Amino acid sequence: MSIRNQRAFVSGALFVGIAIFFFVEATKYSLGTATRMGPAYFPIMLSILLALIGLAVMAGAVAPRAKAERLARWDLKGLVWVTASIALFAALLYPLGGVLALLVLVVVSSRASPEFTWVGTLVNAAVLIAMCVGIFVFGIGLQMPLWPAFLY
Amino acid sequence: MDLLNNLALGASTALSLTNLFYAFVGCLLGTIIGVLPGIGPLATIAMLLPLTYALSPTAALIMLAGIYYGAQYGGSTTAIVVNLPGESSSVVTTIDGHQMARQGRAGVALSTAAIGSFFAGCVATLVIAAMAKPMAEAALLFQPSDYFSLMVLGLVLACVLSTGPFLEGVGMVVFGMLLSLVGTDVTTGVLRFDFDIPQLFDGVDFVPLALGIFGFAEIIKNLEPKDKTSVITSRITSLFPTREDWRRMIPAILRGTGIGAVLGVLPGGGSVLASFASYTIEKKVSRRPEEFGRGAIEGVAGPESANNAGAQTSFIPLLTLGLPSNVVMALMIGAMTIHKIQPGPEVMNKNPDLFWGLIVSMWVGNLMLVILNLPMVGLWVKLLTIPYRFLYPAIIVFCAIGVFSIKSGTFEVYEAALCGVFGYLLIKLDLPAAPLLLGLVLGQAVEEYFRRAMLLSRGDPSVFFTSPLSAILLAIAAISILLIALPNIRAKRDEALQE
Fold it and tell me: Where exactly are the structural domains of chain B?
C-alpha cells in the first residue's frame, strides 16, 4: 500500500494528533451527565469527531483512486527571518524600548528579501519608526515604552 | 413609517461631522491597503483595530466597516490596472477587467466597477435596513436548540461553500471549536487546556491568530522565490462608458447585485463566492460568451456589483443574530466586544443610534469611495510602484504593534509569531484557515447552547429534532452534506469555485 495523496495523509494525521491531544487533556476534567455537562463533555465529543474526520481523510489519501499529491516544499529562509524578527521585537520591547525594537524588527525581517540592501532597509526603518511613534504613541496614546528601560 | 424614522435616526448619527470623518478615514485606509496586493481586508482590519480603541463604539464600527468596503474598491483598481487581485474577491475582475485595460479601456473598466459597486452598495443598504428588524425579532424567539442547529448549519455551509475538500474544512472547524474551549468554562468556572499560562485563562485571542495566519504566513509565502511577474501599468484614458457599454452593463449590475445580496447572507459566502457566482452566470446568460476573457464589460460589472453587495449584506447575520457569516465578520464581533457591545438581536434596541448609524454610514461610505476612487485612481496606481522589500516589513511592523496593543503585552506578539508558522504549515498542507477561525469564534457559543438545550430537555438529544425550526435547519445541513458527497455535484462545485 502506498500513500497516493501525501498532502491529505499528513493533514489527516495532523487532525488525529490534535484530537488525541485534546482528548487526553479533557479526561483530566469531570465528564458530568448529558443533562448537566461537566467541563470535559463537549471537548471529548469534539475530539472524537475530529479523530474520526482525521482517519477518514487519511483513508481517502491511501485509497487507490486518490489524487496523487506530494508534500509542498518549505522555504525556510523567509520563515526563519520573518518569525525571528517578530519574536525579537517581543523580546526586546520592554528592555530596549519601541524605537530600537522596531529597528531590529525591520532589519531582521528585511533580510528575508533577496533584494536586501542596508541603505534601503535603514531608510525604511527610519520612516516606519517615525510613523509608528507619531500615530500610535503620540496620536492614540498607546502604552508602549519608547526608549531603553535603563535610561529612566 | 418605521423604516424611514429609523433611517432618519441613522442619518443624523452617520452624518455628524465626527462620524463622517471616521467613515472617510476608514474608506481612505481601506482603499490604500486594498490597492496593495498581498494583504487582505481581514489583516487590514486586525492591524488597524488599535486605531479605534480611543473612539466611541459607533465611530469605531463605522471606521472598521469603511476599511472593509474600501478594501473591496481598492482591490478592483489593482485587478483592472495591473492584473493583480488586491484581494481575493477581485480575482475574477482581473480576467476581463485587465483585458479591457489592455485595449485602452482601463478608465471605462474602472468606472464600470465603481458604478456597479455603488449601485450594489445602495441596494444592499436598503436590504439590510428592511431585513434587520424582522430578522432580529425572529431571533428573539429562538430556543437554545434552534440556536445550536443554526450554528451547526452555518459551520457546515461555510465548509460546503469554501474551496478544497469538504472533510478537511470540517476538520478545521472542529479544531477551531476545540481551541475556543481553552480558558475558563463559563458554566462551571473550571479552567480548561490552560497549561497554567495566565494569558490563556480568558481563552485564545482571535486577533493574534488571524494576524499570524492572514498577515505573517501570507508574507512568508509571498517571499518564496518564484517567476517574476512583470507589472504592466496601463494608462488611464477616458472614464466615461459609451451608450453601448451602458446597455450591456446595466443588466449585469442588476443580476450581480441580486446574487451578491443573497450569497452575502449565507455563512461562508460573502464577497468572494458572490463574485465567482456572478461571473459564471454572466458567462452563461450572455449572447456573446466568447467575449468573456477578452474584455467583456459584463465580466467586470457583474462580479464587482456582486462582491460589494455581498460584502454589505454579510452584516445582516452579524447585526441580527450575532453570528458571523465570514471571517471578517468574526473579527467585527471581536471589535464590538472590545467596545462592550454584545452582537445580536439586542443591538437594535439597546443601541439604535449605533445600529442605524452604521447602516446609513455604509451608504455614505459607498458615495465617498466613488469620489475617492475615480478621480484619484492615478495616485492609487502609484502606490503599486513601492517595491515589496519595503512594503512587507511595514506590514509586519503594523501587525506587530496591532497585536501588542490588544493588552499592551508581548505574550500576544509571541502567539502571533507562532501562529504565523502554523499558518505557513496550513498553506503548505492546503488546509483552509477560514473555517478554523469561524470555529474559534463560534465554538464556545455552540457548547453553551448545546448545554442549555440538553438541560431543558433533561438530557434528551431528540429535542434537536422535535423543535420544528431546529429540525429544518439540521435537515438543510444534512442535505448539503449529502449533496456534496454525490460525485457529479462535487465536480460541478469544484468547477464553479475554481473557474
Answer: 2-498
